[in-house]
Amino acid sequence: MPLNPVERRKMPRLPMEVLVHIKLPDTFSEVFGETRNVSAGGIYFVTRSDRLVAGQELECLLILPEKLTMAPSPVLVTAHGKVLRIQRDPSNDRFGVALEISGYDFSGKGQNSSSQPASRAY
């Protein structure tokens, strides 16, 4: 193992812990998590859900609180991306998820809404 590992990330990461809603593809289901760091090219978040798999395309809604953005209300940012890897942390039954981002939507519209109720897994 090298003493000085090579940094493979193309873009710097910003440590950020905010709530994230994850819409599962081809379902009305969503799961929840919390980001650990964010960059223009990726997000790392943790979740208790075991329903995510590597290679899965996800739509994630990040809820940026007023104290972070200085806006009068939370700012909603939607991120689209692909799950690169999932790591289970046996000490707390959570999963760490690395998501490669293909695009962000800062319009504040949030995830696609549906008239059907969403089933939720925490």
Give the topology:
Blueprint: E1 14-15, E2 19-23, E3 30-38, E4 42-47, E5 57-64, H1 66-69, E6 75-89, E7 94-105, E8 120-121
Parallel strand pairs: 3-8
Antiparallel strand pairs: 1-3, 2-3, 2-5, 3-4, 4-7, 5-6, 6-7
Walkthrough of the structure:
14% of the residues are buried. The protein contains one helix and eight strands. With 122 residues, it is mainly beta. The model is unreliable at 112-122 (pLDDT under 50). It has one helix at 66-69, and strands at 14-15, 19-23, 30-38, 42-47, 57-64, 75-89, 94-105, 120-121. It has a domain at 14-25 and 36-108: Thrombin, subunit H, CATH 2.40.10.220. Strands 2-3-4-7-6-5 form a six-stranded antiparallel beta barrel. Helix content is 3%, strand content 48%.
Task: Report the mean per-residue pLDDT as an integer.
Answer: 85
CATH topology tier name of the domain at 14-25 and 36-108:
Thrombin, subunit H
CATH C-level name of the domain at 14-25 and 36-108? Mainly Beta
As a percent range, the share of strand residues is over 45%
